[in-house]
Prior knowledge:
Elements: H1 11-29, E1 33-36, H2 41-54, E2 63-67, H3 73-86, E3 90-94, H4 95-101, H5 117-128, E4 132-134, E5 151-154, E6 182-185, H6 193-203, E7 214-221, E8 224-227, E9 241-246, E10 259-260, H7 266-273, H8 280-284, H9 292-300
Helix pairs in contact: 1-2, 2-6, 6-7
Amino acid sequence: MPAILNTTRSHLDWLESEAIFIMREVAAECARPVLLFSGGKDSCVLLRLAEKAFRPGKFPFPLMHIDTGHNFDEVIAFRDARAAELGEQLIVRSVEDSIARGSVVLRKETDSRNAAQAVTLLEAIEEFGFDACIGGARRDEEKARAKERIFSFRDEFGQWNPKAQRPEVWNLYNTRVHAGENMRVFPISNWTELDVWQYIARENLALPSIYYAHQRDVVRRKGLLVPVTPLTPPQEGESVENLTVRFRTVGDISCTCPVASEAADPLAIIAETAVTDITERGATRMDDQTSEASMERRKKEGYF
């Protein structure tokens, strides 16, 4: 009796296949791509997808992180260890260096450096001649990112115009760019936060420890739990509390907040995520508490 093939595929299988196809399209069509790897959960998923797309060979692109200098130590240590484990080239370019060159000017040392990353990223793109930057942005994160194409075109100034993006009918991607132009490519655009955690659980992916429940000193500020650090000290009248928290997203210390949570493993986080009605950025990012227009303006200036 002939064997019967199992043709049942989960939604994660379909999302994975789409993302692998996109990565291979980048490798085939772009001359000098790079994968942006911060050590965060979405970029960890990208690394696993790249492994599935290109192993046992080397990745056809280096990894790169634009370091604000205000990152959590656990995330930077994980970033370096993971890149070494994979044996892949990791390029690090720092906002600190842009400040030293005078291309980034901040009002004060403790200002969020998230927006300033755009300048350093554009400098790195020019330095290495990258024509495609693969990143882990998802459309469910916030409204401005929902306007992105999977292959999102940037002009010779690194700027993004949401009204001048290319059609992607039938998953056909136009990767043609002139000298100085580049693409930002988002293989997991169609994933949600829940999809990401389900994939992390299925693939048993390692993550920085701060994604899971741990004890941390925080203060309550404008509806957020602000971590107590030298960059984010308590303000007058604020009381420090030691709570069990986890980070839903990681970034610049000056603007990234944890949430109260007892979830200590991916399955517990999946259960929490399935019932939440607040996006991860809306719940945890001080610099995203403004408007869609603010984020869109930053993206037009080169922000990822």
